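Troubleshooting entry. Yesterday's outputs looked truncated, so today I'm pasting the complete records for two proteins to confirm everything comes through intact. If either block looks cut off, that's the bug. Protein one:
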Amino acid sequence: VKTGIEFSDGYGLLGSVLTDDASDWATGRYDGDPSDFWIRVTVQSGVLRIQASGDGKTWPLVRLCPFQKADHYFVGPMCCTPERAGLEVRFSEWQIGQALGKDLHDLS
């Protein structure tokens, strides 16, 4: 799975791609500042939950989908551009921990 901000047609889009034999692409327009945002990815009980925040306090749901259970996962930040030049990215506040166990509609 990959998730984050993508720029397309002049807009920042909050997108995710999940590949399991075939790939999909889920995306929606992001009205916050695409240069300053947070992504939270949680895997718990065979479910992947992706949330995004513009302030680090309120975390609306971006995606919820089945995700294969495993003893461990390989995760990390990445960036790319089809332009091959000019992309500047800074990752900060990177953390890995146990699933928060929050209710689906808990936006905190």
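Protein two, checking that the full record survives here as well:
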Amino acid sequence: MGFEKDQISDFLAKLASSSAVPGGGGAAALASALSAALNSMVFNLTIGKKGYDNLNKEEQENVEKALEYSTLKLQDFQKFINKDGEAFSTLMESYRLPKNSDEEKEHRRKMISEGLYNAMMVPYSLMKETVELMEHILTAAKFGNSNVISDAGVSAMLAYSAVESCMLNVMINYKALKDEKYKEVENESIALVFKAENLKNEIMNIVYEKIMGYKKN
């Protein structure tokens, strides 16, 4: 299967260009989508396959719910690529607004604040949903087909990378806002990164133990 002429190639070319869109936010969304896709693959190669009957009813239900969530997020995360680009483009437009009169300056200030807020909240939302995905990757690591356990690990690392990337995009816009009323967004973002790190470590310990016979940490 070749990907030379499809949208992946086009996206990477745009990412490498001098255009600011897509940028790090779009790349983070793509990482989340790749993570969701890999996690879905693990479940699709688990459900109904050899050894699946060894799971009890509750474990099978958890696997099936995790597949449903991962499949849904695969679609949602792709939309975040455009959402991030749109938020950034709108912000850049606000910086180009005229500032000749006091009224124009105030309007420009208001539009910049709104633009920064939106540019902060898009990656914040992506971060929250990606951390939730990681809980389902943990299910894949625990109950997934052992032949594709490494894919669960790759999925976890992609998701964690996306979360850390989102944190950077949240914080650069939060700092530019200079408004303490959004302090809770900063606090919650920090908590999400810690949660993601703990989930990543738990998943990778399971993956390493199943492949190598010992835990990573």
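Both blocks look complete. Sanity check on protein two: The chain has one domain: 20-212.
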